[in-house]
Sequence to fold (183 residues):
Amino acid sequence: MGGGLVSVVISEKTIEEKIFLVRGQQVMLDRDLAKLYEVMTSRLNEQVKRNIGRFPSDFMFQLTKEEMKFWMSQFAISKSEARGLRKLPYVFTEHGILMLSSVLNSQRAIDVNIAIMRVFVRMKKMFITQKDILITQKEILRKLAGLERKTNVNTEDIQAVFKLVDRLLMPPVKPRRKIGFHH
Fold:
């Protein structure tokens, strides 16, 4: 039965790199999904068209020319890759990707979808956690500002606390790797 086999074949990082934000939704391109499913893009789209009732606009939509230009510029698509895109690609939301396994009807599609869904779930959990952290940080700053107004605590002490909180909120700076020969 394949469950779990694909997680070895397809890394979460590979899947994450193929998830894009379009129209405020996380989506994957038809050609990227076809590669993961090991089918031709035309075959994937053919199956979708045969089952179009399963793919409402919140499950799948076609990129506009403007979105395509933006996407190509953002992700440094080479001219040879762009030539391979004769038609504007379709993109699939999380729900559309779930539906794909039923229309492709293969164990590979099921296994790939399980791997993709795990990435989507993990990404949602990370987003929720980060959102909670931001809310907590804003609440701390609001309370500190209120404390500064209410008390006659030394202003320098409160400013030192604000500087410390600011440093905690800033992401750590990663040291840049030096280019060239090193001793």
Observations:
- Strands lie at 19-22, 25-29, 60-62, 90-93.
- The first helix runs from residue 5 to 9.
- The two ends are 52 Å apart (CA to CA).
- Confidence is low (pLDDT under 50) at residues 1-8.
